[in-house]
Every structure is written in structure tokens, then in C-alpha cells.
Specification:
about 180 residues; five-stranded antiparallel β-sheet; 5 helices; Aminopeptidase; alpha+beta
């Protein structure tokens, strides 16, 4: 691996996005089974140039935001394969709440990568000033709900506060984060 890791888990390296990741990132953000859950928070991406523009936008957002906000690539350490994306970002409209969000290429679902990366980034965020993290999702997004529960997140209700959609909200605080 050539990039400096944000953090490492047992099997994964969490690293900054690179323009060289654009083609592999399309295997995540160009797939309907992933993107159907993301709009309007993340616009669909149709090509490598659009993916590079998305990386640039994320980098700008990260620089303009308070720590521990960030967007990162998730790479499998064994072969440096890009398997997913993870972010800690401020939720609109007030940008007060921190969201822990992850997206993985479908061929890597069911292998524990999302849980491992999310837990690692949550621990890192808690060590670096976060007091709580939220996950927001559409009611029908069962995989996201299962991930939230595996992390020890508690359901706190439904809201239309974020993204103008009716969403389920889960929250975790440091003592609640499940140990793997």
C-alpha cells in the first residue's frame, strides 16, 4: 500500500481516496443495489470523471469541516483491493450530528468488512472528539439496520430532519460500541 492509512483493522486499511481509485470506486457508487439507498445524500456517479469529481468534493468538505469528519477508501490488506467506502460526516440541515456511513461493493457483502471498518472508524472518531455517532437509513434498508445493531447502535426513532426523507435513526455512544 502506498497511501498513509487513517487506521488499520485486522483485515482492512482505511485510507484517503486517490484519483487512481476512480475506476474501482465505480464498482460501489455506480451500482444500483448500493446507490438506491444513498440518494439524495450522494448523487449517482456514472463514470470515472464523475467519481474523481466526487473525491474532490469530499476532500473539500473534509477540509472545511471540524475533526473527525472525513471520507475514506476501505482496502483489503491481503491484496490492497478496494472493497468499500466509509465516512464520518455532518448531517444536514444543521450539521450538528455526526453520521457514520459506509458503502461496500456487493461482492464484498456478508464478509464482515462493513462491521470491521465501521467499528474501527467509530473507535477512532470517539478517540478524536466525537461523543456520539448516528446512522440514518430508509426503513427498508435491512442490511444497514443489521450493521447498526451489530455495532451496538440503539434505535432512537424516525425523523424527516435529514435529507427531507422519512428515515430511521440509530445512535451509538462510546460505552455502547460492541466489541468484536
Amino acid at each position: 500500500m502506498t497511501q498513509q492509512s487513517l487506521l488499520n483493522t485486522d483485515r482492512l486499511d482505511i485510507v484517503p481516496w486517490s484519483p487512481a481509485d476512480a475506476a474501482a470506486a465505480l464498482a460501489i457508487f455506480g451500482r444500483l443495489e448500493v446507490t438506491r439507498w444513498l440518494t439524495p445524500a450522494i448523487a449517482s456517479v456514472d463514470d470515472e470523471a464523475g467519481m474523481t469529481d466526487t473525491f474532490d468534493r469530499w476532500a473539500k468538505e473534509d477540509l472545511e469541516s471540524d475533526f473527525p469528519v472525513g471520507h475514506w477508501a476501505v482496502r483489503r490488506r491481503a491484496d490492497d483491493q478496494l472493497v468499500g467506502s466509509i465516512a464520518v460526516r455532518r448531517l444536514p440541515p444543521g450539521h450538528e450530528d455526526l453520521e457514520l456511513a459506509s458503502q461496500f461493493a456487493p461482492e464484498y457483502w456478508g464478509q464482515g468488512f462493513a462491521t470491521e471498518a465501521s467499528r474501527g472508524v467509530a473507535l477512532w472518531a470517539f478517540k478524536n472528539s466525537a461523543h456520539e455517532l448516528f446512522a440514518v437509513m430508509r426503513r427498508a434498508n435491512e442490511p444497514a439496520k443489521k450493521l447498526a445493531l451489530r455495532l451496538g447502535m440503539q434505535w432512537v426513532g424516525e425523523t424527516d430532519k435529514y435529507y427531507g426523507l422519512r428515515l430511521d435513526v440509530y445512535r451509538v455512544r462510546p460505552p455502547e460500541l460492541t466489541q468484536l
